[in-house]
Amino acid sequence: MRQVKDTHGAGARISALVGYQTKLSLERLAAAHGVTQRAMLERMIGETEKNLLGGLSSNKQSLYFAKRLGLHD
């Protein structure tokens, strides 16, 4: 396993296999924004969650944070 230095002390490792086109998209987006792939992924997830929470009632936000809100069909 690769050793990764967590300079901020707040990191958590995730491991996910994504499609080749998704990987290329992440590389392009990061390059276009002048950030690392990690920073781009963090930005996209943060913005998506912020947008989602803005449209939820406080009750549904509570369910979301408890991982009990289903948004799927």
Give an overview of the whole structure.
With 73 residues, this protein is mostly helical. The protein has a domain at 20-65. The protein is 55% helix and 0% strand. The mean pLDDT is 92.
Please give a quick description of this structure.
Helix content is 55%, strand content 0%. The chain has 73 residues and is mostly helical. The N and C termini lie far apart (38 Å).
User: How many individual β-strands?
Assistant: 0
* Poorly predicted runs of 5 or more residues: none
Helix content: 40-55%
Major sheet characteristics: none
Number of helices: 3
Beginning-to-end CA distance, first to last residue:
38 Å
Class by SSE composition: mainly alpha
Quick check: average pLDDT? 92
Order of helices and strands: HHH
Shape: extended
Radius of gyration: 16 Å
β-strand percent reads under 5%
